[in-house]
Description:
The structure holds 2 protein chains of 2 kinds. By secondary structure, chain A is mostly helical. Chain A contains 5 helices and no strands. Chain A has one domain (16-106). Chain A starts with a helix and ends in a 10-residue tail after the last helix. By secondary structure, chain B is α/β, with parallel strands linked by helices. Chain B folds into 3 domains: 1-53; 82-275, no CATH class; 293-462, 3-Layer(aba) Sandwich (Rossmann fold). Helix content of chain B is 57%, strand content 7%. Chain B has 17 helices and 6 strands. In chain B, strand 2, helix 14 and strand 3 (366-368) form a beta-alpha-beta unit. In chain B, helix 1 runs parallel beside helix 9, helix 6 packs antiparallel against helix 7 (188-204) and helix 8 (212-234) runs antiparallel to helix 9.
Amino acid sequence: xxxxxxxxxxxxxxxxxxxxxxxxxxxxxxxxxxxxxxxxxxxxxxxxxxxxxxxxxxxxxxxxxxxxxxxxxxxxxxxxxxxxxxxxxxxxxxxxxxxxxxxxxxxxxxxxxxx
Amino acid sequence: xxxxxxxxxxxxxxxxxxxxxxxxxxxxxxxxxxxxxxxxxxxxxxxxxxxxxxxxxxxxxxxxxxxxxxxxxxxxxxxxxxxxxxxxxxxxxxxxxxxxxxxxxxxxxxxxxxxxxxxxxxxxxxxxxxxxxxxxxxxxxxxxxxxxxxxxxxxxxxxxxxxxxxxxxxxxxxxxxxxxxxxxxxxxxxxxxxxxxxxxxxxxxxxxxxxxxxxxxxxxxxxxxxxxxxxxxxxxxxxxxxxxxxxxxxxxxxxxxxxxxxxxxxxxxxxxxxxxxxxxxxxxxxxxxxxxxxxxxxxxxxxxxxxxxxxxxxxxxxxxxxxxxxxxxxxxxxxxxxxxxxxxxxxxxxxxxxxxxxxxxxxxxxxxxxxxxxxxxxxxxxxxxxxxxxxxxxxxxxxxxxxxxxxxxxxxxxxxxxxxxxxxxxxxxxxxxxxxxxxxxxxxxxxxxxxxxxxxxxxxxxxxxx
Lengths: 115, 466
């Protein structure tokens, strides 16, 4: 039953018709506005960590890669999914780790001296 | 039940991703943002693994292991290499999106009813965006890493832009053909993939090093948009939300970078900046005044407010630690020291802040251009270290200058200016800097690390008793 996965992945979409597509457009629009609103408030000091953080976040492609690599498909498809999964996982791991590493360096005004 | 577990995990993950970015508004809460992101991603992955259709656990475990093996070392790169790392991870993001698109396309060949017009359209968008981000980002990473066989300087040839746009149009036309007949014309799909891969390379070739901060931000945006397109293909709201957050973040950063250089997107993408600019005219030979480290140290000692303008040259010379020692010496004497950060200082947005934070400069001393400029007339000494175009007053008045209109740090308005420079050669864009010939400017020639080291030695040795 290869179809079970993709159907479960979607919120109540028993059919991927124009209605589902339109509701996704609304989600996209609202998420973009939220993104613009939140990101304009990000401290300019932190734009480099911001980019590595969003890098990790957009590796959400991991969700799709898992489904493709994990389901019972021809080997070529599984391989494509596995490569996509490895690439996304790399971004998640390195993105979060390096963001945290950089943020740790930002010392508060009081704690500027190293012990 | 499983349905709600998965959807619930995705819902909480979406909220946490938004909070994650929200907490980045202040360095004090920013690490909490990383925590929120990690929790969100873990929830998303755990939710997905609950899918009953998943059987290839070995493949998943293997791919995740590879991700850790590559990801952990990639997070250890020196901070000067963070722009390259970022570009590489845009490339990985694009690759993942592209491959998922390819897999879906061939899976749907067996179930043609899946090819609704909307989905096919989204699939084509995902594949084009994903693969052009992949090769484009690899090219950008190569340029930033200064890989030998990738030219640093912009490469241009006749009808370049027309050819590139033509290529993209062919890919888009193939895409529309697929929307029309996805199964019969399936042979067009590999053509789209190849064209997208080629377009990514050709898009970056004519762009020079000075524009890399903008290009990285734009590629960031594309990587996000390819995730959004993937969300449309798979009818998955979490993908759309997370992709949109990334896309809008990249867009904002690109706009900030463009404004900081007074350029437009079209100009960055199709302008081939930093190329010729052979301004005819043997201008009159002007001489700059030199100063010795001893003299400069005395000048600094007598100041009450010093502003340091760092540029990427400081990082190339690995002078951050010396700069930190200079900061300590001056602060010890109750001299107010601030750092003036131009938005395009460094090689990606915010790069200079991270480089200085690594050297333990407290972040409240890192002041943005717009906030420091009003203080410049009251500043006793400006010390320019490895910066060039961002302090060139020609940007304000010389209409013939390629950087005319670019906002600059008003180093020339301070009471005195000291500039550390390797030699009198013009900077990256090949533009002569008027600041060096101004009445109140004194040059310190030499390697930034050595010169700042000398200044520190002078200040420490003299211990303020002159």
